[in-house]
Write a structure and sequence with these properties.
The chain has 246 residues and is an alpha+beta fold. It is 22% helix and 23% strand. The protein has a single domain, classed as CNF1/YfiH-like putative cysteine hydrolases (4-Layer Sandwich), CATH 3.60.140.
Amino acid sequence: MFIEPVWPAPKTIHAYTTLRSGGVSKKPFDQFNLAQHVGDDEGMVAANREILKNALQLPNEPIWIKQTHSTIAILATEKNTECEADASFTHEKNQICVVLTADCLPILVCNKQGTSVAAIHAGWRGLLNGVIESTLEAMKCDPEDLLIWLGPAISQAHFEVGDEVRAAFLEKDSEAHSAFIPSPNQRFMADLYLLATQRLHKRGIQRIFGGNYCTYSDANQFYSYRRDGSKTGRMASLIWIAQEPA
């Protein structure tokens, strides 16, 4: 039902990514779809969110946001629920940052003191335009204190893009060339994990974990927009600072 990051985060940091099993949604959203915007029955989504809340004993309702592949990072507060953004962060206890994905890269962030967390939705557009950078700037943490977990995303083996995407990344950073390999269709296979890691390294962040999943190739565990088309669900990646250690 959930994946927990394997990373040396403080015990007060709670972080998870949901899998597609364990919920009530019917095909093609089966089973644990947590997104309201994909065409699933609203009652099913509400039930799944209640299952999520109970299973993880969430201290509050997650701060759900409207993701648009932007670079906007907002403070995870109740008044910002359903605001347009692609990342949220907080320094407060029991405020839950969450992003929804189905091939895009979810990035969870915390500092080693356990006083700051963030959740980032990073598709290629967000990575290109700086969603990681805008979130880290908003958090105002020392890069040497930060831990990063790269959650389930589409792997390079299944993520084909046009030359215009590669060219856009190279225009921003010539080192991005190593994240693209030619495809048989005279296009390129892009590595979201490497593109994110390169951006993080440039911000002075070295403690990066995860990055070993493929949403496309594992239909039993993950939703995938590229594999299944628009009629598919979304996983949630959540992080918060607990009142007491787990």
